[in-house]
Amino acid sequence: MSYAVSTSITVQQGLLGRVPPLWWAIALLLVAMPMIASNFVLFQIFGWTFILGMISLSLMFLAGYGGMVSLIQMTVGALAGYLVAILGTSGVPTISLGWPWWLYIPAAIIVAALFGTLVGALAVRTEGIYTIMITLAIASAFFYFTRQNYGLFNGYTGFNNVVPPALFGIDWRQPAPFYYLTLACASLAYFAVVYVSRSPFGLALQGVRDNPRRMSALGFSVTAHRILAYTFSSVIAAVGGILLVWQNAQVSPGTAGIPQVIDILVIAVVGGIKRPIGPFIGALIYVLLRVYSPDVLLAFGLSGERFKLLIGLGFLVIVFFSPDGVLGLWEKFKARRAKQADPLRMGRP
Amino acid sequence: MTLIETRPPASQKSPIQKPASRNTAERLSSVSSGNALELRGVTKLFGALAAISDVTLTVRPGERRAVLGSNGAGKTTLFNCVTGDFLPTSGTIRLFGEDVTDFPAHERIRRGLRRTYQISLLFGGLTVADNVYLACCGVSRGRFSLLRPRISDVLVARATELIEAVHLTPARDTLVANLSYGQQRQLEIALALAGAPRFILFDEPAAGLSPTERSELVSILTNLPGHIGFIIIEHDMDVALRVAESVTMMHNGLVFKEGTPEEIENDAEVQELYLGDGRG
Lengths: 349, 280
Hints:
The complex is a heterodimer of chains A (349) and B (280).
Chain A: H1 15-18, H2 21-36, H3 39-65, H4 73-87, H5 101-123, H6 129-148, E1 159-160, H7 175-197, H8 200-210, H9 212-216, H10 222-248, E2 250-251, H11 258-271, H12 278-299, H13 307-321, H14 325-340
Antiparallel strand pairs in A: 1-2
Helix pairs in contact in A: 3-7, 3-10, 3-11, 3-12, 4-5, 4-10, 5-6, 5-10, 7-10, 8-10, 11-12, 12-13
Chain B: H1 24-28, E1 37-46, E2 49-59, E3 64-68, H2 75-83, E4 90-95, E5 98-99, H3 105-110, E6 113-115, H4 128-138, H5 154-165, H6 181-193, E7 199-203, H7 211-222, E8 229-233, H8 237-243, E9 246-251, E10 254-259, H9 261-266, H10 268-279
Parallel strand pairs in B: 3-8, 3-9, 6-7, 7-8
Antiparallel strand pairs in B: 1-2, 1-4, 4-5, 9-10
Helix pairs in contact in B: 4-5, 4-6
């Protein structure tokens, strides 16, 4: 399988010339959002979208560029969240160590990345459905372990009152600061993935996806490349996980329960795993459905708890019409429009 | 069709053209070090089928060898064992004096071995420039770099040279999936030339090429720097015997005969087996 990815390595134009106006408009809108949107929309809709988008982006990097479908991303994020609670401060002072933020944040990211790397090292020796099974097995093991371990993970209850440090005297859990925090992290992760996809490492990863045998015949260690892809994606998942824990102000086994683990996959697939923007589109759809579907269901006289039904139906419809997710639908639509505009056919269909 | 006539004219002679006659005993005696490639008793079984059995072969640095044989003679299996795509069932493989029998493919490549594939194995979703650039990265320290290359990058410059060497400059920004078959074959060669190759395995590089493309291929091969040796599998005698200075005939997984192109060409058994009917 080969994906159309590239503009050539040496073709590097100015940033202004390369980015279409639509993107500038979206960027401007996102920056100006706190002036238009309500606090609920900022914190609950966009904050959550950016966070889930980041964790799904880490899956998109592995699946889209590396051809590896990993179900461990949510678990890596949850581990980072747990570490922030354990190493930093939380509502469980008997366990939390109370380290300063400049120590516990990097430590949490590094340990979570090491964990992701270790899982990768086990998973990359398998392909396809077996990768999914191994990562799902480890994710389940993590869920049950955290639920039963009280010494470190505080069992069923987990940790409450896990909040971001009051850096620069700002309460980062207020809607507007939290919006900008998640927006900044998500943009950074997005541009990092876009940038790395054209670096030697990213190109080689796509080479490994398309043709592992040829890659080793060019001197690349296929296994090492795949494992390092897990490391890179784990860093993004870890940052996303920390933000998620800060948003909820708590972390518990349910943060990375099996439904949550699967949701990350659903978000990535619904959005589209071929391009880094896909997971964010998927996350927005997911969050909108999660937040508003109870209202819709109640309006039809159904129980609000059945929101998963709507998500499931939405997932089915999108995957049925476009295996490439919403991005694929958009590309189909563009292709059709371009066809209709064909001047040689005089507007006939 | 006479093979002698199709040899390159004197004007095309490059420094790598070596005297083609050496006595067979000398070539077969294996000098343990100083050989580019040395196979001893290499056997590869697929189930009960011996794709190659007890192959012993020595190639000096800079030597250009053609491996001939009918379909199923074991030529490509031989290549796969040498590059590490398969591990041989038994026997040893030494590359520049070092025992690489158990090495993974990428470790052998980093020691200067290269290969091309019979059916092009390229990255269809990437451009020509990206394909060659990747090949240059594979054997360099920057292969894990997260930084994008600059235009001034040595590897980018090297990639540009290689693209020119295989006459693909006009197509450098074309997606490989959109290249013609002949261009893909040329790109295969560019990938094999990346880095600092010392020994290359060409697996039927001329298969499916037009006559013009074939003569381009011959000029690319004969103009390779003298220190680069190669083994070429080729059914087209015009190509094989013009670029090679020694020939190994394989048949049913065994080395059947070794000699200079003239010796092989005039060998009665070989003629019967291979050059036979349609070729006479």
